[in-house]
Amino acid sequence: MRIYPDTSVFGGCLDPEFAQCSDKLMADFAAGVRVAVISDLTLKELQAAPLSVRSVLDQIPDQHREYVVLNDEAKDLARLYIRHDAVSEQQIVDAQHIAIATVNNVGVLVSWNFRHIVNLTRIRLYNSVNLKYGYPLLEIRSPREVVREG
């Protein structure tokens, strides 16, 4: 399964509240059980993060990563999320993460951002825009909901 982890998931590896599930997801990526879909937007955000957060990405071997970019199609879709009130203009980066995952037909986007991303009302709004404009539904979950059991 291809999974798009937003930047919060990498930071979650260093947060006591989220470390267990974030670490388990990173272990799945490292083992090749899942493919980490990494965007240029995520890489840009990681560059501004502390070294300890940036180094989490190094746990994932290159062969278990796929790189995608914030292209014009994703930028346009992010603007549609804003126009349809899924998020405000101030959360453009969150909208862009959702749009990148959507246009690249990723299986699931994972995040610890419960305010603007992993939020039932917003998920419904994102997906209503996706359906209205011919995109597939996007699964949006916390890492806790997707890590392997056992």
What does the model show?
With 150 residues, the protein is α/β, with parallel strands linked by helices. It has one domain (2-146): 5'-nuclease (Rossmann fold), CATH 3.40.50. The chain is built from eight helices and five strands; from the N terminus they run βααβααβααβαβα. The chain has helices at residues 7-12, 19-31, 40-47, 51-54, 72-83, 92-103, 120-132, 143-146; strands spanning 2-5, 35-39, 65-68, 108-110, 139-141. Strands 3-2-1-4-5 form a five-stranded parallel β-sheet. β4 (108-110), α7 and β5 form a beta-alpha-beta unit. α5 (72-83) packs across α6 (92-103). The longest helix has 13 residues, at 19-31. The model has no long low-confidence stretch (mean pLDDT 96).
Strand composition percent: 5-15%
The third-level CATH topology is: Rossmann fold
Total strands: the figure is 5
What general outline do the C-alpha atoms trace?
Answer: globular
Name of the CATH homologous superfamily: 5'-nuclease
What's the CATH architecture name? 3-Layer(aba) Sandwich
Low-confidence stretches: none
Q: Tally the structural domains.
A: 1
Largest sheet: 5 strands, parallel
**Name of the CATH first level:** Alpha Beta
What share of the residues lie within helices?
A: 40-55%
Head-to-tail CA distance between termini: 18 Å
Write a brief caption for the model.
The chain has helices at about 5-10, 20-30, 40-45, 50-55, 70-85, 90-105, 120-130, 145, and strands spanning about 1-5, 35-40, 65-70, 110, 140. It is of the alpha/beta class.
